Amino acid sequence: MGRRERRIRSVRIPWLAREYKRTCSDCGHVWQVPKWAVHPPRKTLPAGRQFDSMRTAEVVTANAELGEKAAVFRQCAKCGSVHYKERAVRS
Predict the structure, then answer these.
(1) d(Cα 15, Cα 84) in Å, to the nearest integer?
(2) Domain boundaries, the chain
(3) What's the CA dihedral at 69, 75, 77, 78 to 10 degrees?
(4) Which of 22, 33, 34, 69 could form a disulfide with 84 if both were Cys (CB 3.0 to 4.6 A apart)?
């Protein structure tokens, strides 16, 4: 990756949310959730005729691990409820 590409990746776009706040519908507790946990960057299988079971297993494992990490943010830490309202926090 060249110098110009690194610089472009670091540009902050103010209208894009970097994190989200979730408010528990049951107890009112508020917690912050990073963008990667709200919209996880899932790996995809390569397109085409080439089918590689090893590659498929790697992708499935990576997506499962990411799902487990994101699951921590899906419930209220105070009461354990999974009912919440979510809003984007823009800076």
Answers:
(1) 23
(2) 11-89
(3) -170
(4) 22
